[in-house]
Design brief:
Low-confidence stretches of chain A: none
Largest interface: A-B, 41 and 35 residues
Radius of gyration of chain A: 23 Å
Mean pLDDT of chain B: 85
Helix content of chain A: 10-25%
Shape of chain A: globular
Low-confidence stretches of chain B: 1-19
Structural class of chain B: alpha+beta
Oligomer: heterodimer
Mean pLDDT of chain A: 94
Helix content of chain B: 10-25%
Number of helices of chain A: 8
Distance between the termini of chain A: 70 Å
Strand content of chain A: 25-35%
Largest sheet of chain A: 7 strands, mixed
Strand content of chain B: 25-35%
Chain lengths: 423, 152
């Protein structure tokens, strides 16, 4: 605004990618492959790889690399495969906002504040963990209550143990993985407590992280109070009734000095929001078209910053598409506009992308609300497909081909996952 | 410790209850496993004779499930991932893994053994950190590169 503002170094790119985790690396690669010459990849951490660097367990990359890798191995191989010399990587750097001239303001440890003009942006900033405040656990506020991902960082990267006896609230995969991790590091895990009647994590993690180490999983049970003044001294746990209300007459005290929360992830959509992109109240990430473009033209998004994925392999696929689309936005040749809105119907919590077009094939990701052993996936009355087994913890992936929607002429396509009779 | 402990019972009262199961010959023993192949999570049963021969595998709904039950019953193995101390790098821990799945009974002993391993940066991914771990014939290797930094 002011004429006296000191001139900041200015850089010009075709595509700027925010976040250098798996989504960011894949988006940058996608943009390069689609012909974008000048691509910038920005991350606030000192190195690329994002959360993979602290996920030292194996189970990554079966789809993408055809073998089972640890997080750091996946990150390093993805970097080697996706990051080429034509790509500028700016670590220790943070995208603050976009100014009135549509230029990004990037704060960099090495370069100070930079102005970045980019023809298109890909948001790949990942997710944040839900914290104690999100579920309002009553009790005191001592040290020792932390998210499972923070404990993972402390143990795996910093070499610090968070306590001696831990209780884990929530049966998400990170919590299960950390139950094993803490046990192997000599910390006693008193138990994993899950509010719902079913575990949230993969069966594989229940077996390999809990059963292998005799760590009890208490379903339909939650933490109703945290005790301790300076440090956690224990928690009160109670079973819950059918309406998930705690049954306090059956509450009991569990001594511990650490409480790990594995209660879900939320897309990091702060930048998307500040850029004026519309946010889906269910996914909590930006609404995206079939090219992964947000409602702000030229602003694309991918990975956990759009919706929470189970597998990094799908993140990569989605992000490559976002990167290619961003390049097409700059170079010309964008795909025709979407003409169909996907409407989550029975037993469907959300669909991504939010819109598709009837002229080409799309991969649609969706999550169900409740488990079904045998079901039909229905796209309006245009198409149906058998699904074998669906659970909320596992994303459903569907290829939608143009011939499925032949003769379909409405603008809204309802997506249902309904029970299928035997036979 | 023995791979024979029944799994799948989550310890929650009123949750998974052991059913009566099929009638089994005298001296036969049935062990159950929870299949990890897919979200279906089949309850697998392995029936063994008094001579410890597998008589029947039940409860699977695909070939992978049957294979898993036999493997889990006769020789359960796990890929072990943990960290070792590293000096001279930007971070103090180096993530490591077994190059192949290790017999399950050795997992804790391996982690105890690795507690005293210390390596110096630079390290390259795949570099052997502990060869022939506990005489298993399986190496423990670095999961990532770590460059040497001046700070070290």
């Amino acid at each position: 605004m002011s004429a006296s503002r000191p001139a900041r170094p200015r850089r010009v790119y075709d595509v700027a990618v925010v976040g250098a985790g798996p989504a960011g690396m894949a988006a940058a690669a996608g943009a390069r492959q689609a012909g974008a010459e000048r691509v910038l990849l920005v991350d606030r951490e000192p190195e690329t790889g994002g959360i993979l660097n602290q996920c030292i367990h194996s189970g990554f990359g079966l789809h993408h690399f055809g073998e089972e890798l640890t997080g750091p191995e996946f990150a390093q191989r993805a970097f080697a495969e996706m990051v080429d010399d034509g790509l500028d990587v700016l670590t220790d750097s943070f995208v603050v906002d976009r100014d009135a001239d549509d230029e990004l303001s990037v704060m960099s440890a090495e370069h100070g504040v930079l102005r970045v003009a980019a023809g298109a942006i890909v948001l790949a900033s990942g997710a944040r963990e839900r914290t104690r405040g999100a579920i309002r656990i009553p009790g005191s506020r001592p040290a020792g209550v932390m998210t499972a991902g923070l404990a993972q960082h402390l143990v795996n990267v910093r070499g610090l143990l968070p306590g001696r006896r831990a209780v884990i609230l929530g049966s998400g995969d990170i919590g299960l993985i950390m139950a094993r991790r803490l046990t192997l590091e000599g910390i006693e895990v008193a138990g994993v407590f899950e509010l719902l009647a079913h575990a949230n994590g993969l069966t594989r993690n229940i077996v390999e992280c809990l059963d292998d180490f005799d760590i009890p999983l208490h379903l339909s049970t939650t933490v109703v109070e945290v005790h301790g003044r300076d440090r956690v001294e224990g928690v009160t746990v109670a079973p819950v009734g059918p309406g998930l209300e705690p049954l306090l007459d059956r509450a009991r005290f569990v001594p511990c000095d650490t409480v790990l929360l594995s209660i879900g992830l939320l897309p990091e959509a702060e930048l998307a929001r500040s850029l004026g992109a519309r946010i889906d109240p269910v996914t909590r990430g930006p609404v995206v078209s079939s090219t992964m473009e947000t409602t702000r033209p030229g602003v694309f998004a991918a990975g956990n910053s759009v919706h929470i994925h189970d597998l990094v392999d799908f993140v990569v696929e989605e992000a490559q598409l976002a990167g290619r689309s961003a390049a097409a936005h700059v170079l010309g040749g964008s795909a025709p506009r979407d003409n169909v809105t996907l409407v989550p119907g029975e037993n469907v919590r959300y669909c991504v992308p939010h819109t598709i077009s009837t002229d080409r094939e799309h991969t649609v990701y969706l999550r169900v609300r409740r488990p079904l052993e045998r079901s039909w996936l229905r796209l309006g009355d245009a198409y149906e497909k058998r699904l074998r087994y669906v659970v909320p913890a596992e994303m459903v992936t569907v290829k939608v081909r143009p011939r499925f929607l032949e003769g379909f002429s409405s603008e809204a396509l309802r997506v249902d996952v309904v029970p299928r009779e035997e036979g | 410790m023995s791979g024979l402990r029944p799994t799948g019972d989550t310890g929650e009262p009123g949750g998974a209850t052991p059913d009566d199961g099929p009638v089994v010959d005298a001296g036969h023993e049935v062990t159950t496993y929870l299949c990890i192949g897919c979200p279906l999570g089949c309850r697998l049963e392995v029936e063994e004779s008094a001579e410890h021969e597998i008589v029947e595998v039940r409860g699977f709904s695909c070939r992978r499930g049957e294979r898993f039950a036999r493997q889990e019953h006769t020789d359960p193995r796990r890929t072990v991932t943990t960290t070792v101390a590293v000096t001279g790098a930007r971070i103090p821990r180096l993530p490591v893994r077994t190059a192949a799945p290790l017999p399950k009974g050795l997992v804790r002993a391996l982690c105890d053994r690795l507690a005293s391993v210390r390596v110096a940066a630079p390290v390259r991914r795949g570099e052997v950190v502990l060869a022939d771990a506990l005489g298993s014939g399986i190496d423990v290797v670095a999961s990532r590169d770590l460059d040497r930094t001046d700070a070290g």
